[in-house]
């Protein structure tokens, strides 16, 4: 896989795709990072299958694909989920090599998982230049309001201080799951997304194609 620059894209973005429309298809690798049990697999499962299971089987190294149709292009997200190796702090850099986007997931009922997400961020910052990867901080399990340990504003302020996208979600009650994947996909593609204080997506404006892999025909 090769990164395609803006200039290359202009030259190679030819009509036609596997979906039979006139749009080019761009593939983005998105990795899920975060402590065990924060809900990474559940978020991927909710987004791709629109379902929730109390216990999901641990598969080997796996990724799901999901397509986002935009007016001018098709985005294919390859969503990489860990096989639980984060338990042993052994998610190797091969896992996130070549990633265009990352979701740093924490469990808002467990403050320690936010600290762990901050450590993941430092690891990503060692591997990637700021413009190379779109990172979103995701506070999952909003349905467990009574057990909340991390205030929404704490997650949001940290995210803002590091220029990350931010959303709180619930894979269980399907709260803002689609929104966060969609927002990250759009930003990776080069669309400016405004997240309003109540975490809804505001006006989106297509600015430029910044990264991604053009799917070969
Ligand atoms: N209440 C609640 N539980 C969740 C949510 N997301 C995941 N879980 C539960 O948290 C546990 C760990 O989820 P999992 O997706 O396997 O986490 P992972 O280890 O980060 O992949 C499971 O028991 C899930 O059912 C959520 O949004 N709300
Ligand atoms: Mg998992």
From TrEMBL:
Pfam families: Ras. Coiled coil: none annotated. Transmembrane segments: none annotated. Keywords: Cell projection, Endosome, GTP-binding, Hydrolase, Lipoprotein, Magnesium, Membrane, Metal-binding, Nucleotide-binding, Phosphoprotein, Prenylation, Protein transport, Transport. It is a lipid-anchor. PANTHER family: PTHR47978. Belongs to the small GTPase superfamily. Rab family. This is Ras-related protein Rab-17. It comes from Bambusicola thoracicus (Chinese bamboo-partridge). The lineage of its organism: Eukaryota, Metazoa, Chordata, Craniata, Vertebrata.
């Amino acid at each position: 896989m090769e990164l395609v620059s803006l200039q290359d894209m202009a030259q190679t973005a030819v009509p036609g795709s596997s979906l039979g429309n006139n749009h080019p298809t761009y593939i983005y690798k998105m990795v899920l990072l975060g402590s065990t049990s924060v809900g990474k697999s559940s978020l991927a499962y909710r987004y791709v299958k629109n379902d929730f299971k109390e216990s999901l089987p641990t598969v080997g190294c796996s990724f799901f694909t999901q397509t986002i149709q935009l007016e001018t292009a098709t985005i294919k997200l390859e969503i990489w989920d860990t096989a639980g190796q984060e338990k042993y702090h052994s998610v190797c850099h091969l896992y996130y090599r070549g990633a265009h986007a990352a979701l740093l997931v924490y469990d808002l009922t467990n403050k320690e998982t936010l600290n762990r997400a901050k450590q993941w961020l430092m690891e990503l910052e060692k591997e990637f230049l700021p413009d190379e990867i779109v990172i979103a901080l995701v506070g999952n399990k909003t349905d467990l309001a009574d057990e909340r340990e991390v205030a929404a504003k704490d997650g949001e302020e940290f995210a803002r201080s590091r220029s990350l996208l931010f959303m709180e979600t619930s894979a269980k009650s399907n709260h803002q799951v689609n929104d966060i994947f969609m927002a990250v996909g759009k930003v990776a593609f080069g669309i400016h997304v405004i997240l309003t204080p109540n975490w809804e997506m505001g006006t989106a404006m297509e600015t430029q194609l910044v990264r991604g892999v053009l799917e070969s025909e």
